[in-house]
């Protein structure tokens, strides 16, 4: 068969909360077996050690920690629904999410795809406890139980459209699920498959059965193929793998744990008992898997056996394997079973073995098998070409092949053949590719549904990154691909991993710092690009960015090449070498144009494109070029001519900055025809220009009126009548260059407003632009009224950012956030990375591919999502003698229609405070009966405390309501508010956007009655 790649893994097994801990447990031959947790089996009499009493013979088993913990808010599941759900569903949801992340994919990006979900499950004890308690069966209890829902929950919450099914073939269930998932991939039914197994032992029922059947080990431990073997010990756990066709995984550069070469499934048929194993069927299924995989028995280095530790089971399995391997006396096949570490995890046994084999092939080491020191002599393993793994087995170089068996109690057998992943070939790339991308510093991103969830995951990432060396570029690149999709966005830049770990820990420890680097964009982000004008230049401007960012280097080089025919020497070299001549007008203007347009094109390549444009005087050239007014070569010719012609003008002029508005200056300019207003930067920020003697006289008059002034260091009196001698020659160049209408909204400093649609920036525009007043303050005010969320200043230092703060705020909405990719003479790629991080936090979605060079765009497995554990859901089912202790956590709110005794029994304990996040805790004061009744009903239907319900909470997105819950809410409201008797679901549905909307609607309905409402609508 075509090979299948295992690209993602997550699991929770006894003593091993994740895949890393699982591998550690295996390598140190750890024991995950312990006493049965007190909350599992409801009454002490179940633990009777005496078989004659008809009970279990052991109180030991392999149990996972905290199976009651569930981050329901992450999946938008209401507390009431979470409390009704089988813990196996809850565990699978979280495990599946983490496995997809481990595969290098953001789970939300699978939404809408034909991804398949295949779950192996054998026990459904939660349903046995709850569906037989008829008085308490609710819609949530119904959907919270059933084999099918274990798979369907994953498909629903991840919005997956492929096949979704649960498989019960007893102990082989999860390996059969893998077999079916591989088949779906090979048939083209899906391109991604999630295969899983789960088992949670809620009752002692199977322990009693094993004891009655003579299969139970008194010490609760499986001892596979050992002389000490004396039966089954129960275990539990959950495991999920993400599968892809090998060719697809290789084409997309995914990391691969191992490759499934072939699988096979068969049945014992009518053997010597429905629960008895059949050697013949087992050896047939092993042979079939070998044939499908295209391997010989001699190729198989080791096999992960079913290995229950029962006398008959081990004997049959050894005989079946011996049929294929008996000739390997010189090089026997290694055999082990993870059941010695965990117990028999029943429905999850196959996936537990699969993950062990995949990790062994990945690490090229097979862990020793517990209880292997003394082989069972009756099995004659040596004569069958088999040896138990008493010590870890190093696989060495080259391809290694492994087998995996999983046999069902009812006779359904499965076997899989796996091999090591093919060596990863580095993607060939050219020197041009390497120099065309990258900003010089990595950006690490992470999203979560709440600030507390962000904090928790920062700690998890910092812990994982500090434990192993990793390149910051690969870490950042993978974070942008995987850690996305939630409402709260965190981002920081870092040049190396140590710096990144320090920043993550600092933000996790400091709420103010965390808030600074976390955004929660509520709407569409709009960016305004601001291009700095003359006067902001300095020697070696952007040299650090040019040195570190291949992307910026590319665009500044292109601008320099366009300018070179008109300037006669490299503007780039002059700028980067720190030449003081950059202050000369003939060089300053083309240099600022080159820097501005290079920064604009760099951001454009990074996926950050402007919605609005504004340039200050000479900065308008870069803005116009970016807006498509003219091509780069034409703009370069025009700006070079402008600077050169101005440089040739005679000296004698100057410019005076005045802290006053233009109206205040009118009387001071009367009688001074040699000076005038050159620039209006804001309501009280004006620049005068003209004859130097005239400016000095005006300055003295302003000083007498206590108006502050400052003479600017400039070479010429820009935007004054002293520019007129150059206008005719400049006009000739401008007419040859031409100029069209901008393709983006551009706010003109010539007119102090946005240019109208089709309004061209032609030769007449650019000639007038030289002479007339720069109305930056007016244009900036108009731009702010357009409602940008971010201003991005593109120039050598953020001069305009401080100016725009002095412009009156927009009529509606907050001021935009200010971003500067270059902050001054010391700026490097870190400032550009910080700017990109800030824009992403604000709601923009950069093209991260352009932010990283090819060498950084390689897979790296980040720590998976760390779910919250503060919410707990557990119950003992129909056994009601004892109430849950408060630490057990959250359960459904009591049903107001129940009797007093039942309400007391089901009363939810005090719940921990919900972390502030998407759920707003500012709730409406219940000042009227309608509000009190409605909030109580919402709380009862969802399982929330009334204190948690705020007006901005959305019933569907935040509180997890669905159509069934809406119907229940309607019924509860009608019971308590008779005025709503004629209310239909159609009336109610449009009013469910938020709690506040619903309350307003209900108050109006009760006040006026449904008939009045109908008349008003009519």
Write the layout of secondary structure elements.
Elements: E1 4-12, H1 19-27, E2 33-35, E3 60-62, H2 79-84, H3 87-102, E4 116-121, H4 125-130, H5 139-143, H6 147-158, E5 164-167, H7 173-186, E6 193-199, H8 205-212, E7 237-245, H9 246-251, E8 258-267, H10 279-293, E9 300-304, H11 311-325, E10 333-336, H12 339-342, H13 349-363, E11 365-366, E12 386-388, E13 393-394, E14 401-407, E15 412-420, H14 431-436, E16 442-448, H15 451-467, H16 472-482, E17 488-494, H17 497-509, H18 511-516, E18 518-519, E19 527-531, H19 543-548, H20 550-567, H21 571-576, H22 585-605, E20 612-615, H23 619-626, H24 632-647, E21 653-658, H25 666-669, E22 675-682, E23 685-691, H26 692-704, E24 709-711, H27 727-737, E25 746-748, E26 753-754, H28 763-771, H29 776-785, E27 790-794, H30 799-805, E28 817-819, H31 829-841, H32 848-851, H33 900-906, H34 929-942, H35 963-976, H36 985-988, H37 995-1017
Parallel strand pairs: 4-5, 4-6, 9-10, 9-14, 10-12, 19-20, 19-27, 20-25, 27-28
Antiparallel strand pairs: 1-7, 1-8, 2-3, 6-7, 8-15, 11-13, 14-15, 16-17, 17-18, 21-23, 21-24, 22-23, 25-26
Helix pairs in contact: 1-13, 3-6, 7-13, 10-11, 15-17, 20-22, 20-24, 22-23, 22-24, 24-27, 27-28, 34-35, 34-37
């Amino acid at each position: 068969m075509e090979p299948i790649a295992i690209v993602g893994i997550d699991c929770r097994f006894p003593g091993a909360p994740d895949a890393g801990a699982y591998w550690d447990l295996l390598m140190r031959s750890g024991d995950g077996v312990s006493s049965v947790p007190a909350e599992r089996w409801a009454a002490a009499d179940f633990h009777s050690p005496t078989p004659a009493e008809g009970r279990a013979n052991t109180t030991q088993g392999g149990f996972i920690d905290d199976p009651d913990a569930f981050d329901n808010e992450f999946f938008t599941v209401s507390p009431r629904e979470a409390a009704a759900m089988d813990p196996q569903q809850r565990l699978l949801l979280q495990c599946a999410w983490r496995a997809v992340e481990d595969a290098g994919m953001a789970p939300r990006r699978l939404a809408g795809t034909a991804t398949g979900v295949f779950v192996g499950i054998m026990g459904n004890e939660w349903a046995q406890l709850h569906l037989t308690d008829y008085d308490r069966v609710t819609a949530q209890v119904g959907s919270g139980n059933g084999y099918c829902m274990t798979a369907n929950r994953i498909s629903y919450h991840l919005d997956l459209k492929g096949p979704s099914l649960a498989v019960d073939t007893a102990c082989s269930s999860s390996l059969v699920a893998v077999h079916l998932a591989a088949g779906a991939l090979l048939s083209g039914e899906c391109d991604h498959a999630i295969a899983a197994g789960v088992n949670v032992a809620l009752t002692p029922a199977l322990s009693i059965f094993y004891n009655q059947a003579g299969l139970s080990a008194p010490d609760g431990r499986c001892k596979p193929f050992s002389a000490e073997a004396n039966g089954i010990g129960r275990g539990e756990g959950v495991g999920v793998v993400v599968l892809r066709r090998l060719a697809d995984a290789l084409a997309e550069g995914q990391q691969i744990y191992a490759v499934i070469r072939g699988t096979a499934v068969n049945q014992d048929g009518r053997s010597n008992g429905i629960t008895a194993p059949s050697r013949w069927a087992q050896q047939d299924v092993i042979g079939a898997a070998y044939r499908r995989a295209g391997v010989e028995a001699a190729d198989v280095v080791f096999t992960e056996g079913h290995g229950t530790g029962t006398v008959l089971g081990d004997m049959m399995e050894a005989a079946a394997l011996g049929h294929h391997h008996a000739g390997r006396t010189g090089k026997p096949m290694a055999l082990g079973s993870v059941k010695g570490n965990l117990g028999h995890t029943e429905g999850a046994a196959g996936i537990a073995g699969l993950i062990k084999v995949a990790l062994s092939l990945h690490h090229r080491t097979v862990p020793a098998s517990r209880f292997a020191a003394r082989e069972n002599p009756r099995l004659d393993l040596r004569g069958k070409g088999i040896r138990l793994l008493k010590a870890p087995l190093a696989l060495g170089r080259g391809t290694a092949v492994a087998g995996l068996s999983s046999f069902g109690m009812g006779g359904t057998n499965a076997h899989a053949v796996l091999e090591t992943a093919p060596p990863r070939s580095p993607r060939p790339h050219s020197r041009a590719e390497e120099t065309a991308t990258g900003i010089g510093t990595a950006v690490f991103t992470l999203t979560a549904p709440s600030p507390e969830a962000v904090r928790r995951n920062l700690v998890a990432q910092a812990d994982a990154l500090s434990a192993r060396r990793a390149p910051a570029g690969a870490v950042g690149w993978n974070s942008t691909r995987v850690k996305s999709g939630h409402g709260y966005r965190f981002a920081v830049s870092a040049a190396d991993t140590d710096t990144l770990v320090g920043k993550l820990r600092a933000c996790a420890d400091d709420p103010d710092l965390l808030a600074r680097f976390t955004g929660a964009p509520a709407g569409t982000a709009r960016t305004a690009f601001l291009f700095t004008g003359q006067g902001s230049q300095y020697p070696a401007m952007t040299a650090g960015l040019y040195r570190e960012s291949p992307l910026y280097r590319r665009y500044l080089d292109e601008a320099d090449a366009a300018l070179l025919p008109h300037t006669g020497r490299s503007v780039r070299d002059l700028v980067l070498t720190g030449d003081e001549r950059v202050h000369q007008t003939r060089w300053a203007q083309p240099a600022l144009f080159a820097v501005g347009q290079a920064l604009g094109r760099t951001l454009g390549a990074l996926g950050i494109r402007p919605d609005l444009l504004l340039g200050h005087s000479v900065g308008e050239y870069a803005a116009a070029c970016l807006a498509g007014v003219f091509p780069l070569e034409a703009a370069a010719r025009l700006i070079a001519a402008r600077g050169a012609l101005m440089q040739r003008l005679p000296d004698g002029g100057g410019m005076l900055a005045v802290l006053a508005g233009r109206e205040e200056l009118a009387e001071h300019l009367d009688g001074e025809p040699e000076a005038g207003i050159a620039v209006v930067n804001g309501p009280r920020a004006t620049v005068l220009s003209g004859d130097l003697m005239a400016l000095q006289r005006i300055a003295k008059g302003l000083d007498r009126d206590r108006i502050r002034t400052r003479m600017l260091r400039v070479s010429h009196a820009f935007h004054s009548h002293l520019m007129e001698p150059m206008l005719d020659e400049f006009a000739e160049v401008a007419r040859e260059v031409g100029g069209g209408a901008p393709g983006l909204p551009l706010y003109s400093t010539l007119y102090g407003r946005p240019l109208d649609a089709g309004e061209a920036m032609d030769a007449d525009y650019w000639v007038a632009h030289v002479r007339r007043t720069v109305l930056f303050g007016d244009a900036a005010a108009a731009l702010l009224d357009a409602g940008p969320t971010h201003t991005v200043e593109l120039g050598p230092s953020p001069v305009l950012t401080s100016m725009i703060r002095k412009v009156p705020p927009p009529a509606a909405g907050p001021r935009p956030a200010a971003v500067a990719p270059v902050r001054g003479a010391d700026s490097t790629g870190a400032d550009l990375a910080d700017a990109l991080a800030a824009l992403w936090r604000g709601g923009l979605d950069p093209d991260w591919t352009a932010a990283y060079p090819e060498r950084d765009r390689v897979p790296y497995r980040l720590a998976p999502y760390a779910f919250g554990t503060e919410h707990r859901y557990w119950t003992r089912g129909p056994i009601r003698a004892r109430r849950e202790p408060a630490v057990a956590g959250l359960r459904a709110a009591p049903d107001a229609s129940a009797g007093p005794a039942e309400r007391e029994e089901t009363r939810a304990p005090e719940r921990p405070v919900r972390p502030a996040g998407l759920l707003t805790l500012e709730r409406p004061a219940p000042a009227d009966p309608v509000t009190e009744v409605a909030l109580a009903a919402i709380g009862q239907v969802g399982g929330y405390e009334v204190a948690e319900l705020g007006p901005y909470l959305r019933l569907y997105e935040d509180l997890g309501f669905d159509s069934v819950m809406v119907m229940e809410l309607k019924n509860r409201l009608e019971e308590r508010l008779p005025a709503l008797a004629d209310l239909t679901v159609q009336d109610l549905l449009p009013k469910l956007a938020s709690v506040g909307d619903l309350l307003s609607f209900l108050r109006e309905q009760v006040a006026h009655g449904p008939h009045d409402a109908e008349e008003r609508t009519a």
